[in-house]
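Hi V.,

Quick status before I head out on leave. The structure for the redesign project is tokenized and pasted below; the design run finished overnight.
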């Protein structure tokens, strides 16, 4: 896919017939080592073909692929809270969160 992406970037940039060297150059510019065999295969598959026609052809094929289905059933509701006993742990958790926020020693991300 990365080789095809490089090819597409080159064609979008105005290079109507990218070479193996062009594709390798794009990939190496972003720190990716190109596989020469895959580049050769890609170029042989795309030789004398218009990339825009290939994209249009592929898009029409994808249009016939089912991509959704019926929505899932709604989840059942959980059990009701047990009352006052459950409220105490929630209050303790809130206090702990306040303590954790002091770990930045008074320096915020946007100070």
């Amino acid at each position: 896919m990365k080789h095809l992406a490089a090819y597409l970037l080159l064609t979008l940039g105005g290079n109507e017939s990218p070479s193996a060297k062009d594709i390798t150059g794009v990939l190496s510019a972003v720190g990716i080592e190109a596989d020469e065999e895959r580049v050769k295969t890609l170029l042989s598959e795309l030789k004398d073909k218009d990339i825009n026609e290939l994209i249009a052809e592929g898009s029409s094929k994808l249009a016939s692929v089912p991509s959704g289905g019926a929505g899932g059933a709604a989840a059942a509701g959980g059990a009701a809270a047990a009352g006052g006993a459950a409220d105490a742990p929630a209050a303790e958790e809130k206090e702990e969160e306040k303590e954790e926020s002091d770990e930045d020693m008074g320096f915020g991300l946007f100070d």
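Above is the designed sequence. The chain is about 55% helix and 0% strand.

G. will cover questions while I'm gone.

Best,
W.
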